[in-house]
User: Fold this.
Amino acid sequence: MTDDNRVVERTGWAPVRHFAERSVLGLIAVIAVGLGFATLLLLVRFHWSPLQSLDHAVADGLNHQVAGSDTRVKALREISSFGGRGFMIPLVAVVVAALLIRRRPRPALYLVITGLGAMILDPSLKVLVGRLRPVVESPVAHAPGHSFPSGHALGSMVVYGMLALVLLAGVRPRWRPWFLGLCALIVALIGFSRIALGVHFLSDVVAGWLLGIAWISVTAYAFRLWRRETGHPAPRPIRDGLEPEAAPDLRLAPAEEVILPHPWAKGAEILVGWVLTFGLLYTVGYALTTWTPGTWLGRFDDGVPRWLQTFRTPALDDLSWLWSKAGDTHAILAVCLIFCPLALALWRQWRPVLFLVLTMVGELTLFLTTAAAVDRPRPPVEQLDGRMPTSSFPSGHIAATICLWTAIAIIVMARVRKPWRWVFPVLAVLMPVGVALSRMYRGMHHPTDVLGAVLLTAAWIGVLWWTVRPNANAVTATEAALANRQLVVA
Assistant:
């Protein structure tokens, strides 16, 4: 008698029957979705008049509502960006890296294969159908390539759908409807934004959604069959996620009980530290703006950007632009959005992430308030970046760069024992030096503006080091994984 027969004999036919029923219902649902997409494909391919009329009516109506309002257009573009490859590919890459760190290769492989399939389906079908994009009275956005199906709609449905299936097991049962609702809302808003911007018809978006649902359904069913064939427990209802036993590893920080003791007291301490840091920066900035012009320090401050200006060449202009971009808001935010999930995956603690977030939020608010209060003019040289909305003291680019890489170095050095950990202190020196030289070379800052950035970093990180204690109870990745396994066993 085979093992399968023994299992059936011991447990009865009910589990097998339930699984078969769920499989048949799932198959019917996938077929229905596939038929819906195929119907839309044929109607679009053969230019069915009622559908064309509906598509043009919706496109024109939304264009009249959106055109003429820069705020609406900007908001729609921001929403649309969450469905672009430039956002979704890094998002999936970070989640895949986190899953591999947590030793969950099967769901990581599922994400990769499902995502690659969507990337192949989108351009292939667009070339096959060859539908032109909408032509509206007042264009507010443009997109290359063909229109059917919407790549943003297909991609967002696949990406946020497969992430929901993979991460659902790590969400507490009472929060799962809200989690799924949030994912659905994001997909719906992205699809709406593509129609409202006038780059897709309604049928393009609906087709993208239907194809995305069909694709993730097929890959999810294949994943569940793969689990059974490799000897894992029989698939549970999909509401438990693709791999329910991965729940302890999918929770963000299961190895940490208390993030920050006495949070109200700590919040008051941080606020007092912020005020004192602002007072220090304002005092130094006021002195530099009021007392140094005409003195040796003022002449030195203006002389360094002038001297650096004499070295300008097209090649150095391009290099300085790249270094300068390493300290702008987008680059700093991108590094934070990559580092924080990976830090949670490795060390399973919120405190280092909280330390980094408070560091960057404090830096931004201190820079903006100090720049507005001091209002120091830029150096009297040609400024390659044009007129900036903020004043010169302190340098926001340099302060953000120093704060970011210093905070990361503090976190990593206490938790990594390998020799490569010294890369981060080196980056904490090299990155700010490169950004500082580029900003002065481009005529955007004085040397004392760099000093202001150094003072901001030293004072603010000192405040957070004393209050947050980022390395209290610091553990290595191995120790965190061991503590998590012991927690699961207990």
Summary: The two ends are 37 Å apart (CA to CA). The CA atoms of residues 32 and 437 lie 61 Å apart.
